[in-house]
Amino acid sequence: MNISGNTILVTGGTSGIGRALAEALHSKGNRVIIAGRRQALLDEVTGRNPGMVGIAVDLSDTVAIAKFAESVKRQFPELNVLVNNAGIAGLEDYTAESIDLTRAYSTIQTNITGVVQLSAALLPTLRAQPKSTLIVTTSGLAFVPFPPGPVYSATKAFMHNWLDAIRVQLKKTSVEVLELAPPYVQTELGGPQQASDPRAMPLEDYTSEVIQILESNDIEKGEILVQRVKPLRTAERDGKYQEFLDMFAGMHDE
């Protein structure tokens, strides 16, 4: 992926990693479109970044996604980078007398169904470009799950597997398929307390390292991995899987 001169759509672009990446890529001379649910946040981000475009969409709504994709194709036929970053997280307690799966269902809809649907809708546009990139944000938890959030972890493992498969399918096209797998980062994905958790990687540091990786094209097997997430990526190979699993379970107990 070239670091500049692109037309880039970033979903989940109003907060956290999505916003940080959108602003960083905007500063590198790209035309950036951000998508999010709340118009007020879209207005705030685009107001701080002149030239950036914001479009409101609920990526848990399949009908809204279809309409959104058609609008993007009409307005930005030159789109050559899709960053499918939108996602939600939640906890489930399978020891409870009555297990509430409401959050689990919405997590699957947003993190899997929405990503697959939007990617499929916009891939013809990406393939029409001489050079294009599909990026999907997964997580270090794709490789070792967080026991209190089993569905979130599983959605990221699903996307890792899906990306490996479509990367093979798209090998002879113009579309580069990349997986962005963050470690635990200081965002509000898991709640407001996560943004200041000293155990989490500062968002600015994470964003800076990702941009450096993209600029240097130091990407192996289509995976954008900062140094801090690599131990999770290789945990099973290195015999550290159970150690990380126990550690994550202990983090929730604290």
Automatic annotation (TrEMBL):
<keyword id="KW-0560">Oxidoreductase</keyword>
<comment type="similarity">
    <text>Belongs to the short-chain dehydrogenases/reductases (SDR) family.</text>
</comment>
<dbReference type="InterPro" id="IPR020904">
    <property type="entry name" value="Sc_DH/Rdtase_CS"/>
</dbReference>
<dbReference type="GO" id="GO:0016020">
    <property type="term" value="C:membrane"/>
</dbReference>
<dbReference type="GO" id="GO:0016491">
    <property type="term" value="F:oxidoreductase activity"/>
</dbReference>
<dbReference type="InterPro" id="IPR002347">
    <property type="entry name" value="SDR_fam"/>
</dbReference>
<dbReference type="Pfam" id="PF00106">
    <property type="entry name" value="adh_short"/>
</dbReference>
<dbReference type="InterPro" id="IPR036291">
    <property type="entry name" value="NAD(P)-bd_dom_sf"/>
</dbReference>
<protein>
    <submittedName>
        <fullName>Putative oxidoreductase</fullName>
        <ecNumber>1.-.-.-</ecNumber>
    </submittedName>
</protein>
